[in-house]
Amino acid sequence: MQPLEESREGKQSRETAWWWDLLQSLVVAAVLAVIIRAFLFTPFYIPSPSMEPTLYPGDRIIVNRLAYRLGDPQRGDVVVFHYPLDPSRDYIKRVVAVGGDTVEARNNVLYVNGQPQPPEKYLPPGVVYSDFGPVKVPPNNYFMMGDNRNNSADSRVWGTLDRRLVIGKAMFIFWPLNRLGLIR
């Protein structure tokens, strides 16, 4: 009789240990997921056509939150940021000028510091946008433009982007699968 009761206690102990191990594993996984999402990589959804043909509505991307902890956004980077006029909303645009630069557009040519920029291969064919500027970009600010410049509310509308509003660098598309790849 004694060995049978010990066996039941042993079985209960093993079951309790299994549930305890499972609970610990779930808690650790949840904490790691929160840390990764908050500080390392965050998924974002593209709701508008302002970055076509680089990104299309419905694309899901991963943003690297560490990219600008060690350095600054550079011209050509695709950046996710808090919208300056309503920081509860997030936007995505491309950096075309950085602090200290002067940017303007004349006759459908973008000029940075008075120099015409080479044709931007990420722009849709036939894009025509209106003249603006010149605009002097303040230190620790960026001039942002959508790749679909005819349908983009960007720095031409709301001004330059303060460095403090930058969330991270858009790295790659993970959905839909037929568009899987790096963002350039």
From TrEMBL:
InterPro entries: LexA/Signal_pep-like_sf (IPR036286), Pept_S26A_signal_pept_1 (IPR000223), Pept_S26A_signal_pept_1_CS (IPR019758), Peptidase_S26 (IPR019533). It is a single-pass type II membrane protein. It is found in: Cell membrane; Membrane. Belongs to the peptidase S26 family. It comes from the Bacteria. GO terms for cellular component: plasma membrane. It comes from Neomoorella thermoacetica (Clostridium thermoaceticum). This is Signal peptidase I. Residues 20-175 form the Peptidase S26 domain. Its main location: membrane. One of its GO terms (molecular function) is serine-type endopeptidase activity. It is an enzyme of class 3 (hydrolase). Keywords: Hydrolase, Membrane, Protease, Transmembrane, Transmembrane helix. One of its GO terms (biological process) is signal peptide processing. It catalyses: Cleavage of hydrophobic, N-terminal signal or leader sequences from secreted and periplasmic proteins. The keyword Membrane applies. The active site is at S50, K93. Its EC number is 3.4.21.89. The chain crosses the membrane at residues 22-46. The gene is sipT. NCBIfam families: sigpep_I_bact.
